[in-house]
Amino acid sequence: xxxxxxxxxxxxxxxxxxxxxxxxxxxxxxxxxxxxxxxxxxxxxxxxxxxxxxxxxxxxxxxxxxxxxxxxxxxxxxxxxxxxxxxxxxxxxxxxxxxxxxxxxxxxxxxxxxxxxxxxxxxxxxxxxxxxxxxxxxxxxxxxxxxxxxxxxxxxxxxxxxxxxxxxxxxxxxxxxxxxxxxxxxxxxxxxxxxxxxxxxxxxxxxxxxxxxxxxxxxxxxxxxxxxxxxxxxxxxxxxxxxxxxxxxxxxxxxxxxxxxxxxxxxxxxxxxxxxxxxxxxxxxxxxxxxxxxxxxxxxxxxxxxxxxxxxxxxxxxxxxxxx
Length: 324
Known about the structure:
The chain has helices at 10-26, 75-85, 104-113, 183-197, 207-212, 218-222, 244-260, 309-323, and strands spanning 36-43, 46-53, 58-62, 66-68, 89-90, 94-103, 120-121, 130-136, 140-145, 151-156, 165-174, 203-206, 234-235, 270-277, 282-283, 296-298.
């Protein structure tokens, strides 16, 4: 079945979000910026609101229903709330991988058929699930910075401005069992090691250099046909920080991709690290998004139930309808 999509573009998204913000404010919604939610207000076993601070003063905000929807960036924070307030949850998947960048010509056939293809494999010998994610034809690799100073790689594309490259993530899913229950902390440690090697920045390495067992040097990147779209990335050796299991999965997946997309496993294909997706431990909820704490609901990527903007938005719409 064909499903039409519209590509908004990074620069157009800013205007859309601004319009949504203004529409909400016109409807009487108060939006607080430069504030941080510090906890929940639990009285007689029910969530009655939240506590927050503006950096100078602490406040309490009471509500009949409280919705937590902090996004992927708030995964670690929400995990802390679960521990503090006894919110039922189960360990979820954490994705560790790289962002791959190739010339547009390599991805031309796929880009023409699907703006964002979804390719999934279970490469030997471990046969973990490995998938592509967030494909950006003519896009740009970008750096994201988390509150704890962790730098991770991401990608985006503009509506008007285009590069000569296509970038996409290759993510290896990790599901841990007892006694380990800190998947987010595990992924953060991988990212911290990579940042350490790159002096606080991101690392990039050519695929051929990985197969040859050598690091990539800046002078080699300067002569490469695939030029990084992230200007201040550090050429180096991502295998020095990437866990063995994840690295083998990624290498074998890229080799398999080459059969579907010839040229994908070229020597000059660029791999950026770390690409990490912090999914919250999945919150236990019923079909109406009720947690085991009455009056508390959790939505979006921070809840562990969604994996991106589209489904998070749908979840928000459904929650709004139920509250109304």
